[in-house]
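Q: I'm writing up a methods section and want to include an example of the input and output format. Could you take the sequence below and give the corresponding predicted structure tokens, formatted cleanly so I can copy it straight into the document?
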Amino acid sequence: MGILEKIVTAIRGGVREVGETIVDANGTRIFEQEIRDAENKLDQAKRDLTEVLAKEMQAAREIDRLSKEVEKHEGYAIQALGKGDEKLALEVSTKIADLASELEVQKQARERFANHSDRLKELIKKTGHSLAEMNRQLIMVKTTESVQKATAAITDNYASSNSRLISAKESLDRIQKRQQDNDDRLKAGETLQAEFSGQDLEEKLRAAGIGETKNAASDILAKLKEKQKEGANS
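A: Here is the clean output for your methods example:
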């Protein structure tokens, strides 16, 4: 295969794929339109059946008329023979033959119309049942499609909401981490300040009972008693 033929084949393949994609995307609409087209054909078939039945009725009336004409002319021929007018009887017989020939044509026509109408009736009945089933299937297809669209929308909304919740949780975690970092820095600064100013060592000595301690109330009271005793002795 030459390069040009390959290119043409590739283009045809691409067109087919695009066509299939379009058909799949509009499957329900195409299915519904096909049902409508079939219903239009069914309506046309019913109109055709009406025409065929009308022709059958006309043929039946013509058969009835011709049968009466044949019967009437047979009576004429018998009367002519009764009067000895064989020539007239032969002429009437010729008329009877023509009427009988036309009668046979009408009988055949009525039979054809009757057969055709029977086939049309059966076809219309089967087509009607098929279309009724197709319409039920169309309702199911549309319902399923609506449910699937609603489910997809709910799923998308849930996924979007869940994504927003995850994002909010991440924001909260960042805020809490930043606040914890700030708190740690403040505590570290206070610790360093205490170490550099000697406050930390003084606190440790006081806790150990070493170095200067503040006079407790009992110490002050003991000193006051001592002063009172000295004053009494003097």
